[in-house]
Design a protein that fits this description.
Keywords: DNA-binding, Transcription, Transcription regulation. By secondary structure, this protein is an all-alpha fold. The protein contains ten helices and no strands.
Length: 206
């Protein structure tokens, strides 16, 4: 690729990112039905033609936002179970990764826009959302391995994974998402991870 082509590609990527950012901002403030592609173009400081070159319709733009949300869920991974390393330490690392994702402002904005539309259209939610994330799947494998090693007593790893993540979501994700509470501070994140791991181990320690 020539330098000129590379620069053009980077400019295109920046414009696409600006459109996505503007769309999330407008959808968060005004909702799907009250947000226009014209307004998104204005906020993104690009032409309407540029918006439609990237996203032929508002539905396509929303689909890209959902893809971005799910991509962020899929990109984080659970490290393999490490024999000999304290269970609490490994679970704390997993919990911290989950908290950092769920509490991040960017993730919260994507989730707020997505869930707002899905609440109005459950059929669309079933069509576009995946059943589970790579992170949850990795946690299930980790829990199954810990069970097989005899360090945890977990008859249903899928249920246990949902319980673990549910404890974190209840404080790091849902309250800030609906505006009930301010986002967690770094100290509060650490406290949440510690209490979640403590409660989880109290239930499932061998």
């Amino acid at each position: 690729m020539t330098s000129k082509s590379a620069n053009k590609g980077r400019l295109t990527d920046r414009k696409r990112a600006a459109i996505m950012e503007a769309a999330v901002s407008e959808l968060k403030q005004n909702g799907f039905d009250n947000t226009s592609m014209d307004r998104i173009a204005e906020v993104a400081s690009v032409s309407k033609r540029t918006v439609y070159n990237h996203f032929p319709s508002k539905e396509d733009l929303f689909a890209a936002i959902v893809d971005e949300l799910m991509s962020r869920c899929q990109l984080i991974e659970v490290s393999d179970y490490t024999p000999g390393e304290p269970i609490a330490t490994q679970l704390s690392d997993i919990g911290q990764t989950a908290v950092d994702l769920m509490a991040s402002p960017e993730f919260q904005d994507l989730a707020r826009v997505t869930l707002s539309r899905f609440l109005q259209s459950p059929d669309l939610a079933r069509e576009m959302m995946i059943d589970s994330t790579q992170f949850e799947a990795g946690l299930i494998v980790w829990l199954e391995t810990a069970h097989q090693e005899g360090n945890l007593q977990i008859p249903d790893a899928q249920l246990a994974a949902k319980q673990f993540l549910g404890l974190i979501q209840s404080f790091a994700f849902w309250p800030p998402l609906i505006g009930k509470e301010a986002p967690l501070t770094e100290v509060q994140k650490k406290q949440l991870v510690e209490s979640t791991v403590s409660m989880f181990l109290a239930q499932y320690s061998g």
